[in-house]
Amino acid sequence: MITFARDKQFDCVVLDEVELNLHHIFTGSFENDFARVDAFNLLRDVVRNAEYVVCAQAQITELTWDFLKSCERDDIHVVRNDFQRYRSLPLDFFSVKADCVEELCRLVEEGKPVIVPCTSAKFARELELFLRKKFPGKRILEVDSDNVNEPAQKKLLENLNKGVRDWDILIHSPVLEQGVSINTRHFEYVVGFCDAGMGIGAPDSFVQMMFRSRHLKGGAVWCDSRVEYGAVDYRQYLSEEAARYKAATGAVDVVEELDDGRFAFRYDDYVILRAKARAAQAAAKNNTQAEVYAILNSMGCELRVREPESCDEEIKKSLKEAKKDLVSEHHARVANAGKILRSQCREIDKSSKATQDERDQVERFHLEERLVLDLDQLDDQERDAAFRFWNEGKGQKLINALGEAVLSLEHARAVAQYLLENRPQNSEAHGFWTRWIIRSGIFQSLGGRFENGQVEFDGRWFGGSV
Prior knowledge:
By secondary structure, the chain is an alpha/beta fold. It has helices at about 20-25, 35-50, 60-70, 95-110, 120-135, 150-160, 160-165, 200-210, 235-250, 270-285, 290-300, 315-335, 340-350, 355-370, 380-390, 395-400, 400-405, 410-420, 425-445, and strands at about 10-15, 50-55, 90-95, 115, 140-145, 170, 190-195, 220-225, 300-305, 450, 455, 460, 465. Helices cover about 50% and strands about 10% of the residues. The protein has a seven-stranded parallel β-sheet with strand order 5-6-4-7-8-3-9, sandwiched between helices. A two-stranded parallel ribbon has the order 1-2. The radius of gyration is 25 Å and the shape is globular.
């Protein structure tokens, strides 16, 4: 989409999975919020200028209507498709994850090829380790966003309908969420695992993942039973953004620019639609289990609710071991990754074709640079402590926060006002003031001080000073 001019007019624009794409724009992965807003404006311009627009979406909501209205489309017609491809498809519905894993093992033992969608890439990798140990003779492949450029995964994705026959078990994350159809008669059973709060629009996207194979005979589903309490009224999200802006700048909460030149918070189409998207996601994720059940039921699936059973203790034990093995394997890969220069790190970060080895090299570079250490010089205990502190990159966010924490009250308010006046659509800008209050408090409680350009603490971590 980025390659054509905004004012280019198309005869017909087709937006498949329109709401999943809108949710991705509002809450998905973008380089920064400027790119996010630009993507929204570009899509809106294309839809506004097209002669005809066709939007397709299962379980469509008012978000699509509101988006089309923001594109100045008044010629909206709703056509409902009552065809149910998966009517009467038998699916066992589990509330205990280990019970569902046991059902997966039963299908594998019977020699049935199985496709296994997981909203959590972490659990997908844990499940791969578990199944490799339990079924060493089976051909198992796990696909997620971190390994799509590895040889086996890349070969499969280049010719999916031919490549699936090479595998007995295919485990995948939301990397195969949409735009993928497996029409080859191979995977006739699906066993899905849906963690609450994972992914974009988790219930809808998970159901999309469940039916990538088009010739299913049956399967099983596990859904997280956790209940969340996210706000479901979009006006609350609008109020939160306005309140953060007002607290940081002292601006008046109005919807137009003030006569004296001061900037006021503005509710434009992007801000309003993003708030509505967040409210819709919260409503769906507040009870993921009930939402997934309702969608599958509306599709005509024959759902058989399975009560909690006495699962094989060996399976529970093996799943816990797989979780530990995944962490150990990751630490070993990073510790043994080759050292790279900063320039090489930047190139890999920019690349969309980075391999797992290259990602490990980047993580090692960041870990050693930010924690000021050399993994080769640490013993096993010190290395484990370093990885715990780093926490797969989360430690870097804590360290980066120091840049805000050392600002004085006057400087922090000035920065917050500058960001909100010059980057009003940037979510990071709206959160700056709140982050500074929290992080400066933590910084001071740890005995932090900033002297001669250096940050120092009274505290110590894993036996060494910070």
